[in-house]
Amino acid sequence: MRMEFFSRMKAAGVITLMTMMISLHQIYSSSAQECPSTHDLLNSLRQVEKMLAVHETSYQQSLRSLKKKISTLHNSTMAVFKIASCPKPDPPAHGRRLGRVFGIGHEVHFLCKSGYELIGPRTRVCLESLKWSGQQPMCRHLNSTANSLPSFSPASPSSSASSSSSFPASAALSASSSATSLSHQSPTSSSPSSSVRPSHCTHFLGSTRCTCDVGFTISGRDNNICTDIDECHLFPLGQPGLLCVHQCVNTPGSFHCICPSGYDLTRDGRGCTDIDECENRMHNCTADQLCVNTYGGFQCVTVECPRLKNATYIKTSSMRCERNPCMLGDKPCTQAPNSISFHFLSVVSNMSAPRILFRVSAARVLGDTLRFGLAGGRGRGHFSVQRSGRQTGTLLLVTPIKGPATLEAEVEMSELEHNTLLGRYLTKVTLFVSPYEF
To answer: Is residue 261 within 8 Å of 254, Cβ to Cβ?
Structure first.
């Protein structure tokens, strides 16, 4: 593009110089016969000056056009569009992950190799908080559970920590009993409880193999006791491989998850999904109040128009108040906001930032300038307002907020004409932050 531009400029310069030479040649040709008059010389010089002025204007216009094209090309090649996505999840040891797209709403699936079972969710979803639902699963060897079948291969001693163990048959067994498979409950040293029970032993060909039910591990000096595996202790809260989003309750041979009030268990029995009390009419808000669903609960809010000393307002909708007309010359009244809108948002605790919360736009513009800014509110340090278009401002959350908390932000849009205020429009945004991160 630059070479084409300079080629054009060069050609234009050559044409201009040729024109000037022809004009001067005409002057000097006439001077060979007779001296040109001062008037002729001035006319010739004015023609040359006009041609130079036209050439300079054309050059400046072409230069501005070139700079604009170069700037557009530069911006288009330098722009980088980032797609919001969750971090790449690792496949579990002795397993693999299915799925290569990690954007919001996409799923990944997990499988274990033969001989292993999956502990944790089989499917995880990328949430709007840019975190994966559930927790990182793991693959556990089947030999550590009771669903492994008895082995009739030659026995060899193994560690007592294993849930399946083989050891030589007791000397009290007769030769005839060694040829027949016999099963019995191994005695326990104490009365069995919900977390401790006898193992299941099988005698065959001079060897004995003991196993436990699913969710138990074999223990005891003679491998005759099965002790419950505390899955909740193996995968504590806040650690990778967490079994439950909120709370894990260990049960004999298994576990189950519970959610806080205001949530339901997800289909996999491990996650928690918010109950919309407002949608399901499970709230106690009055007819004059507005029900706002929050993560784990709801809020009953009352929208009232402000009572100012210099201006009065009337409610034109459930979420908007407009100023009554001002008296002629009443400057304090005209400087009050023309309208006040109310909006309520719900977010989870420690939501990632920066994040767009709300957009304010002007339906029509009467003046030549629109200005956006924060006018007030509780927790202003967590918010920022940026212009995102000619008629649009954006409210941003700039720092994460740990719940529970209730914050407010007042976004002001001012309309001006030649720096004279034409009107102010106020948007009050209330943010309800949940005590939970889900």
So the answer is: no
pLDDT in tens, 131-148: 888 878 888 887 643 333
What tokens appear for 123 in the block?
Answer: 């499917």
pLDDT bucket at 16, cuts 50 / 70 / 90:
low
- Minimal CA–CA distance to 129: which of 409, 403, 415? 403
354-374 b/e (C-beta count within 10 Å ≥ 16 → b): eeebbebebeeeebeebebee
Cα–Cα distances (Å) from 58 to 16, 61, 236, in that order, read 12, 5, 75
CATH superfamily of 290-433: Cadherins (2.60.40.60)
Q: How far apart are CA 293 and CA 314, in angstroms?
A: 27
Q: What percentage of residues in the chain have a pLDDT greater than 70?
A: 77
Chain center to CA of 312: 41
DSSP state of 237: T
Alpha helices in 197-269 (DSSP H): 231-234
Confidence of residue 178 (pLDDT cuts 50, 70, 90): very low
CB count within 10 Å of CB 7 equals 10
Of 212-221, 282-291, 320-329, 347-356, give the lowest mean pLDDT range: 212-221
pLDDT score of 323: 95
How far, CA to CA in Å, does 357 sit from each of 261, 345, 399, 437?
26, 8, 12, 17
Q: What is the pLDDT of residues 191-209, one digit of tens each?
A: 345 788 888 888 777 777 8
pTM here is 0.54
Whole-number CA gyration radius for the chain: 40
Q: Which residues contact 315 (CB under 8 A, 6 or more apart)?
A: 303, 305, 321
Phi, psi of 184 (to 5 degrees): -155, 165
What is the structure's pLDDT at 213? 84
Distance from the first to the final alpha carbon of the chain: 54
339-347/420-433 β-pairing: parallel
Q: Please name which of 318, 316, 323 lies closest in space to residue 288, comparing C-alpha atoms.
A: 318
DSSP string over 345-405: EEE-TT--SSEEEEEEE-S---SSEEEEEEEE-TTGGGEEEEEEETTEEEEEE-S--PSSE
Partners of 409 in the β-ladder:
429
Instruction: List C-alpha distances in Å: 161 to 142, 155, 208, 222.
Output: 14, 17, 17, 11
Going by C-beta distance under 8 Å and a sequence separation of 6 or more, which residues neighbour residue 340? 305, 306, 313, 320, 321, 426, 427, 428
